[in-house]
Amino acid sequence: MPVTAKQPLPHESHQTLATRFLEVRAQSRDICRPLAVEDHVIQSMPDASPPKWHLAHTTWFFENFLLLPFLKGYRPFHPEYGLLFNSYYETVGRFFPRAQRGLLSRPTVEEVHRYRDHVDQHIRDLLDSAPEDNRREVAARVALGLNHEQQHQELLFTDIKHLFASNPLRPVYRESAAAIRQATTRAQGWSTWPAGVYEIGHDGGGFAFDNESPRHRVYLNAFRLADRPVTNGEYLEFMDAGGYGNPALWLSQGWQAVREKDWNAPLYWANTDGAWWTMTLAGMRRVDEREPVCHVSFLEAHAYARWRGKRLPTEAEWEIVGQQQPVAGNFADSGFLHPSPANGTATPAQMFGDVWEWTQSAYSPYPGYRPLAGTLGEYNGKFMSSQYVLRGGSCVSPAGHLRATYRNFFYPADRWQFSGIRLAE
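Now predict its structure.
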């Protein structure tokens, strides 16, 4: 069933915002509940973080950007947690090297939960007592912190999956995840859009990250967008046709990755006795040809599109179509935690949820973009280099967190996110 949910907004009453704060914070703990203590500490690769670090970093965010500047008399829970759990904010101070987060056996998981309890209580105190002249800024930062935590909830799922896939035992995160769904995938169709001047970007109503603004006009030539993502079965055709062995299909960086990293299939796929299997959060299972292909890089998406004689959409094209669709779909809240086959009659289908969809657009600022003032300006703007935009969310995105203007971004070789392909021409 499609899932929708309420989004944390800065204009809500402090009581409502306090309720949402507790709900979002509890969800992070719920995601970690199936894990053993040992699972919380391991870092499976430099791009991933241990679950314990996610729990602590999101707590540090509230402590550093809300409690320290706005709650009179507040002192840090621990004097060194700023060093350990600051992610990348240069203007705040030093931070522990990202690739070494798995070396932090201390603080313990229990101590991190005490840290969360401490900060949660003080945030509630702040919401109850913030002076009138600070209330608007406090509410805006709480909303930002909650949306930031929801981003880390998705990262918890992706990092846990990579962690478990790195273990030869292929542990099961949750038995109920990735249950077989009875569905058939319809033949791919296309939606056609005329040339013209369109508006994209956030309109200022409700919460949005700074990189979604300002709203502006773009001219688009006529285009067509596929009415569903590429499936595993369609991607298998590319593999069987020798797609990973044909340098003519690949960008230079992609062909280099194919050779150096021995890519021959999406991440987590393994061929056993002639059959393709894939790792899920419910353990290993046969590849279902009806499901959207997942865990492919921009480089693989680009090569596949070229093989089909198509291309990836621009983010403006994707957003114009996405604006017309309800923000509902297969999100983390459904409990499935795996891409689902497209079914039903909605056209286009699966614009939101299931898999993040690569676009051909480089992650760069919109015309007139201004980052947030002060330290929070480091949140997005400093990363507008060498990355590509993805749109639509995935099966592990929190419901209510997404919108048509939402811009995700990753490096072209990244594959551990739930990223897939929708074609355009």
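Confidence is low (pLDDT under 50) at residues 1-6.
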